[in-house]
Amino acid sequence: MNVIVVGCGRVGSYLADLLNAEGHRVAVIDKDPKAFERLSAGFKGIRIEGDVLDREVLYQAGIQNADALASVTNSDSLNATLAIIARNKFRVPKLAIRVFDPSHAEVYRRLGILIISPTEWGASFIKDVLVHPELHPKLTLGNGEVKIVEVAVPPGLVGRPVESVNIPQQVIVAAIVRQGKALIPYPGMMFQENDFLTLAVSTTATGRIEELISH
C-alpha cells in the first residue's frame, strides 16, 4: 500500500517503521525536520518537511495515489481537518486519526472517520485493571464497545456446555484454551477443569462476567 503518515512523533515514527517493515511504501510528513530522527535507520520511505495543509506538500507525499492516511499529530482539529480533505478531495479510501479529547472523538466518528483515542482507551483499560482485576483484557474493538477478555473457567462451569455462557448481543465464547492449545468452540463442547475462556464481551455486560466467575 501507499501510506501517508502525518506527524513523526513517538506514535507516527513507530507506525511508519512498522509499515515500512511490512513492505509498504510510506511517506512521513512533519514540519519539524528533527522529528525524522525518530525513524529507524532501516526506514526506506519518504521524509517530507512542511505544512501538511499545503497542497504541494500533500502532492509531494503522493496523496493523489495514496491507499491510506494516518494523521497522528498533537492537534485533534488538524488531524480531523486533514482526514476530511483526504476523503472528500483526494478520495483516500482508508483514513485513521488520533484524537486526545474524548468530547471531540464522538463528533468525528459521526463524520465517518476512524478514530483512535488513547485517552478513552487508556482510561478504560486502567479502569478494568482496577475494578475488574479478575478479567484479563486482551483487546478492545471499535471504540471500546466490545472487549476481548480471558478468564479461567470457574469450578461451577466444569462439565457444562460452552454455549451456556453465551448471552445474545452481550457475551460470546470466542475460544477455549485447553492444555495450552486454543480451540474454537463446537456444538456440544463441554467445559473442562483448567480451561481458559476467551470471551467477546459488550462493555455493558462486564458485570455479567463477574457474576459468572463468582458463581
Question: In total, how many beta strands?
Answer: 11
* CATH structural class of the largest domain: Alpha Beta
Shape label: elongated
How far is the N terminus from the C terminus?
49 Å
Any idea what the CATH architecture of the largest domain is?
3-Layer(aba) Sandwich
Largest sheet, spatial ordering of strands:
3-2-1-4-5-6
Tell me the count of domains. Answer: 2
CATH superfamily of the largest domain: NAD(P)-binding Rossmann-like Domain
Write the layout of secondary structure elements.
Elements: E1 2-6, H1 10-21, E2 25-30, E3 46-49, H2 55-61, E4 68-71, H3 76-88, E5 94-98, H4 102-110, E6 114-116, H5 118-131, E7 136-141, E8 146-152, E9 171-178, E10 181-183, E11 196-202, H6 206-214
Parallel strand pairs: 1-2, 1-4, 2-3, 4-5, 5-6
Antiparallel strand pairs: 7-8, 8-11, 9-10, 9-11
